[in-house]
Write a structure and sequence with these properties.
Layout lengths: L2 H8 L5 H10 L3 H11 L4 H15 L1 H4 L3 H6 L6 H13 L1 H4 L8 H7 L5 H14 L7 H9 L7 E2 L2 E2 L1 H21 L4 H9 L6 H14 L3
Antiparallel strand pairs: 1-2
């Protein structure tokens, strides 16, 4: 299969089952999808990226061999490609217990501290997914998440209180995930308590619900 043949086929909008069937007979499919992401000047690259995200959930063994190549996309100037790479890399953590992800942990941590709320949230997703396999990182990751309330987030170059409130909501969701695999800390509850009156109602509801679930600590 050539790159152009794959592009022509993707333009037919095949569903995920068709993609899986194609991969079983075309072992170079994943590499070709990455070729398109890295070289296409149109929108087909975003379809390829979405396919990788979906496959990373159900067939991580197909995607993990390309981990380093996908990791390079986390530095892409195209935010959509960057975000997709971070999601795909997070999805692969459970497959190898985070061994490959640990190689890029410092870079992902820096992205999780940036002023783009979406980038920070997608990077933080990977950090949280590491905790069941690297519990020694829990305290550092929780501290990182808590510091989000002190960070400024921007939308189109302007400081955005709304993005800040949304990020706080993401952090509360992450704390719920952490609670599944390890004990909730007092710091996490205190964080939630500080946001029970968050100006974003959805975030405030999440904070109140978290406190109610864990207020016995």
């Amino acid at each position: 299969m050539t790159r152009q043949t794959l592009i022509d086929w993707l333009r037919l909008k095949p569903d995920l089952n068709a993609v899986i069937a194609k991969r079983t007979v075309e072992p170079d499919l994943i590499s070709l999808l990455l070729d398109i992401i890295e070289s296409d000047s149109g929108t087909i690259k975003f379809q390829c990226d979405k396919i990788l995200q979906e496959l990373s959930l159900i067939h991580p063994e197909w995607i993990t061999p390309e981990f380093d190549r996908i990791a390079s996309h986390s530095a892409s100037p195209n935010h959509f490609i960057q975000w997709g790479a971070l999601i795909t890399l997070s999805n692969l953590i459970a497959f190898d217990g985070g061994k490959k992800f640990m190689r890029i942990y410092p870079e992902v941590l820096k992205l999780a501290e940036c002023d783009s709320m979406i980038t920070a949230a997608n990077a933080s997703k990977g950090l949280v997914a590491l905790i069941p396999f690297h519990p020694e990182l829990k305290e550092d990751i929780v501290r990182h998440l808590i510091r989000s309330e002190k960070r400024l987030y921007r939308d189109k170059g302007e400081v955005s209180p709304e993005c800040h409130a949304i990020m706080i909501g993401h952090v509360l969701d992450f704390f719920d995930q952490i609670a599944v695999s390890s004990p909730v800390s007092r710091d996490m509850i205190d964080f939630a308590q500080r946001h029970t009156e968050n100006p974003r109602k959805k975030t405030a509801r999440k904070a109140k619900a978290f406190v109610d679930r864990h207020k016995t600590l």
